[in-house]
Amino acid sequence: xxxxxxxxxxxxxxxxxxxxxxxxxxxxxxxxxxxxxxxxxxxxxxxxxxxxxxxxxxxxxxxxxxxxxxxxxxxxxxxxxxxxxxxxxxxxx
Length: 93
Hints:
With 93 residues, this protein is α+β, with helices and mostly antiparallel strands. It has a single domain (3-83), classed as Alpha-Beta Plaits, CATH 3.30.70. It has three helices and six strands; from the N terminus they run αβαβαββββ. The protein has helices spanning 3-6, 14-23, 36-47, and strands at residues 7-10, 25-30, 51-59, 63-66, 69-72, 76-83. Belongs to the universal ribosomal protein uL23 family. One of its GO terms (biological process) is translation. InterPro entries: Nucleotide-bd_a/b_plait_sf (IPR012677), Ribosomal_uL23-like (IPR013025), Ribosomal_uL23/eL15/eS24_sf (IPR012678). One of its GO terms (molecular function) is structural constituent of ribosome.
């Protein structure tokens, strides 16, 4: 997989911003098929930093209703990247 296909977008939530300041970890939405090794290599190449730890979790899609039809949102994978001391990523927030 290509680096640009693995990392989809950074997540900007209250929890992710607090984690970035407190524990030097960043949250990203990543491809469902990517494993921890691929995510680590992608972040190191893309942002030119050293990664210490990668934690992943799959968020299940929710059931949604529009008028009379019931549908479901997609499942997605979240990765929490912890960087080594001295490394930072500037995401603009």
